[in-house]
Amino acid sequence: MSYVRKEMTEKRNPLAEVVKRWVRFAMEDEEVVFVESDSLWNMLDGIDPGIKQWFRGSPDRMRRMVRCGIAEADATVVAAGLADQGLKVFYTTSPWLMERAYNMIAYSICIDRHNVTLAGRGVGIGGGPTHQNMRHIAWSLPIPNLICMSAADAVEAVKIAEFAYKYNGPKFFVASTSLSTTIFEDDYQFKVGKAPTVRDGRDATIIACDEWVYKGILAAEMLSEEGIDARVIDMSTLKPIDKEAIVKAAKETGAIVTAESTSIHCGLGSAVAAVLVENYPVPMKRLALNDLFTQADVSRKAMMEAYYHQTPEDLALAVGETIKRK
What we know:
- Helices cover 41% and strands 18% of the residues.
- By secondary structure, the protein is an alpha/beta fold.
- The longest helix has 15 residues, at 14-28.
């Protein structure tokens, strides 16, 4: 696994790196346009003030930043219309993308396979019941023609962005907007539908997405002190999900634990369980949010994670419990 860093000390903002990469695409490709609903334009000052200066450099550039205000559903239809004219559309908004524009994503973008990249944000605990992504996996997976992905770190987020730019069709991915530990080397090669193993192991497998991949590594290190050898898989593509990696892990380790910062209903755990029950059932446990609305306290994220049992320690405990059922 040469694509995994030996020293995981660097932190980057995944979504900020994605935006910078798409702006670079726009500088080289006049068919790239941005659609935003009171989100992206405001983010640019914190990402790189020079980006706004580039857009303001000419009327043609400013026309490629379509600002729709707080109107996610309207912005989604605008994105579909622009893509229908042959443009490559990048659309990002706050956590409400799927929930406020679901009908338009399904029927205005995905039926006709329009070339729109939907970038979600707000991963993790702290944003409260309204300002965090708790149900995006449940919402996105049932929509036909939509590829669904989740970035574990900034490197993978950029690789997903590069795939999205080249792929002609609808795609949705989620990337954290906070500083996240960098797991992958810069030469890591993302492949849609393939889940990389970031840590090998023989006693159990942790299957995680987004920030839980790094938490999974930390949990595996804790377990190693107890003599338990845990594998960690990054389920970076949620649809099409890597059935081969799931079944292989079940056969080789005999126990599966999924970890995610979304609802326990219809999330990553449900998708993995569906693969296992049809192919190779083994003891399994899902670590997720248990059918609740969380409280808001971004400034004390660690405390919130402990309260909602969203820590590496919780994950290590879940793995230990699952192994006992083998």
